[in-house]
Amino acid sequence: MSDPSKPKLFRRILVANRGEIALRVIRTAQEMGIETVAVYSDADRTALHVRRADQAVALGGNKPSESYLDIQKVIDAARRTGCDALHPGYGFLSENEDLAEACKQAGVEFLGPPPHAITVMGDKVEARKCAMQAGVPLVPGLQEDVDAAHLVAAAKQVGYPVMLKAAAGGGGKGIRIVREERQLIEAFELARAEARSSFGDDRVYLEKFVTRPRHVEIQVMADKHGNCVSYGERECSVQRRHQKLVEESPCVALTPELRAAMSKAACDLAKSVGYVGAGTVEFLWSEGRFYFMEMNTRLQVEHPITEMRYGVDLVREQIRVGAGLPVSPVPEPRGHAIEVRVNAEDPDKYFPSLGTVSRINLPGGPGVRLDSAMFRGMEVTPFYDSMLAKLVVHGADREQAIARCLRALRELRIVGVTTSLSVAKRTLESAEFVAGDYDTGILDRIEKRAAPRDRELAMLAAAATRFLLAERAGATVEAAAGKGDQPPRWALLGRTERLRRTMP
Amino acid sequence: MKYFVRLGDEERVIELQRHAGRLTARCGDVVHEVDLALVGDGGAFSLVVDGTSYDVVAEAQREQVVLQMVGERFVLHCEDERERAAHAVAGHKAGGKRELHAAMPGIVIDVRVKVGDAVEEGQTLVVLEAMKMQNPLTAEAAGKVTRVVCKVGEAVAGGAVLLELE
Fold first, then answer.
1. In the annotation, is A500 catalytic?
2. What DSSP state is assigned to residue A66?
3. Range with the lowest mean pLDDT among A159-168, A244-253, A325-334, B82-91?
4. Is A18 helix (H, G, I), strand (E, B) or coil?
5. Is the separation of the CB atoms in A18 and A80 below 8 Å?
6. Looking at beta carbons, which residues of chain B come within 8 Å of A490?
7. Going by C-beta distance under 8 Å and a sequence separation of 6 or more, which residues neighbour residue B44?
8. Distance of alpha carbon A425 from alpha carbon B13, whole angstroms
9. End of a domain among B32, B63, B90?
10. A432 is a domain residue
11. Same domain (yes/no): A167, A250
């Protein structure tokens, strides 16, 4: 518990989210002696965030639009339970200016930036204008959203390959890369449809697709007194369909000068919109230059690698600056951190995998952190994001961090749903990743199958498993028949096999 | 007992025998010393092959075996000699007919083909929305659409047949 002689920054925080991030916020609040209120949909009645919070309020429904995306229900829950702060997590309403505004009206501190900053940065078109004014370099493209009529001409003008992005987007949804003119219209329609269903806004803009880019982002934290600090970068180039899979910090491609320049650009941009709280400015890095992509006005999924390197708790910092305290001094970073996202998905087909988590083996040992709201018996439903867990490791240097991450990946077992674990493992083992000279296309070049030696071993193990199960089944049959003292299992085997052979 | 184990496009014949409690596995000319032990109430195994130890999680459903070991996940097809013989008899079934399945539960957003359409390999046939992503389902090989089972706006279960092709 926290020191009782110190006044609490807040009495009670409503956590307007689910899954591992809701649990993440609850954990820090508990350490700070602040009560938490969970909200939940019907599907999440037994979810871990509900069980770990001090209070829980049902929002009803299963679809996000009926529950975690319903601002009125969330605000009502905060009011009814006497919350004086609200943490939005990531996804859902975390980058919704209406929620920030509604919190303001209700006298509840929104643990994020003011509504204006969300509005400006949430609109990719506006954000680009803003970055340009703050002197932050941009990728060539059209700052206005495009319509079908002007699309072909616009793409030609910028030059292929081009990227189509949802103006209201985030999290990789509504993004399409187009390499040739004949793919343009279909990609545009898919991007529009995804944008509409994910964000309720189908505006799409277009920009040049930078070759061999790395995705490097800067973590910032701003207070209400005009201070903004940077916690360095995270390298997030290991992506598939713009969904990050492995992140590391620091990025091996950055020089100290470039890191300083990117940090300054990120802080300048944050200050220019009166930013408060945790934010991430995403850049594309290509051939020693960096270009602004977007600012995410929330805590990122991959924030733990920053926490591991700097020895800070970013949620704690969010709560502190939300309460009006100045940002804390930034400690010297040390070592190297890697995060692997474990998604419920079929890695061959890239499709979500649904089912019930029937068995889990968790990794442990030095330098390992697992952020997850997963439990044995948990159902993976189609209603929400497919991420099951984040495996985060810290090592003295990059080599140790990679070795540690691979070791922990071997320990982690999830049964009942298919996961992306094997892809992460092959990525960390790949020569390209180990060398550090990779870009956002790395996943396309990763081995599609396990090493030949491992495949041979698996075939042997499969046969041995069936053999053992047949032996045991045979033993059970004998026992059920009441044969008295059981002979050794190996002795039963011949008899069982003979029996099976004579069966029709 | 002989097992025919398939992983992707590879197949091995592995013969397992227990003599005086010791289990051996013969793969071609190589014989391995194998010790497999069930851990707890099932699902987890400790496998020792020629002295090398592996921690294995296995789910076996009839002839399908799903393994998690060495940081990888394997989906294998494994039949014993008796099953192989039974299949050989029943094996002469109609060929050439294929189905497009929903790889996950979702909502059919678009059906891009109709009965009689010739399709190319890789062509988008149906768009399925799940977890907010629009997933194009493509033809695995060139062919002709013989039946359309799904319609736009319909919620389908994982594995449901959407189209029939030949």
1. no
2. G
3. B82-91
4. coil
5. no
6. 18-21
7. A359, A361, B38, B55, B56, B57, B58
8. 29
9. B90
10. yes
11. no
Q: Using CB atoms, which residue from B5, B43, B56 is nearest to A463?
A: B5
Contact B58 A465 (CB under 8 A): yes
Mean pLDDT of chain A: 90
Q: State residue A477's pLDDT score.
A: 59
List of chain B residues whose C-beta atoms are within 8 Å of the C-beta of residue A493: 18
Q: What is the ipTM of this complex?
A: 0.77
Q: What is the DSSP string of A187-207?
A: HHHHHHHHHHHHHS---EEEE
Q: Does the structure show a pLDDT above 80 at A16? A: yes
Per the CB < 8 A criterion, the answer to whether A238 and A427 are in contact is yes
Q: Find, in chain A, the residue whose alpha carbon is nearest to that of B60.
A: A466
* Residue-wise DSSP of B65-79: EEEEETTEEEEEEEE
Task: For residues B79 and A379, give the distance between their C-alpha atoms in angstroms, rounded to a whole number.
Answer: 31
Q: Which residues of B touch A404 (CB under 8 A)?
A: none
Indicate which residue of A128, A298, A320, A404 is catalytic: A298
Q: Which residues of B81-112 are buried (b: 16+ CB within 10 A; e: fewer)?
A: eeeeeeeeeeeeeeeeeeebebbbbbbbbbbe
Residue in chain B closest to A186 (alpha carbons) equals B124
Chain B (28-67) residues lying within 8 Å, Cβ to Cβ, of chain A: 32, 34, 36, 38, 43-45, 47, 49, 54-60, 65, 67
Query: By the 8 A CB rule, do A39 and A62 touch?
Result: no
* Under-70 pLDDT residues of chain B: 89-96, 131-132
Number of domains in chain A: 4
Collect all residues of chain A within an 8 Å Cβ-Cβ radius of residue B8: 449, 455
Domain that holds residue A40: 12-111
The residue type found at A486 is: Q
For residue A192, which amino acid is it?
Answer: R
Chain A, residues 38-77, CB within 8 A of chain B, namely none
Contact B130, B61 (CB under 8 A): no
- Kindly report the CATH number assigned to the domain that includes residue A240: 3.30.470.20
- Is residue A394 domain-shared with residue A492, that is, in the same domain? no
Residues, chain B, total? Answer: 166
Show the tokens assigned to A16: 């307007």
Closest CA to B80 of A276, A496, A140, A211: A496
Higher-confidence residue: A168 or A77?
A77
The H or E element containing residue A240 is strand A228-240
Final residue of a structural domain among A158, A189, A208: A208
| Whole-angstrom distance, CA of residue A423 vs CA of residue A400 | 20
Average pLDDT over residues A418-446: 95
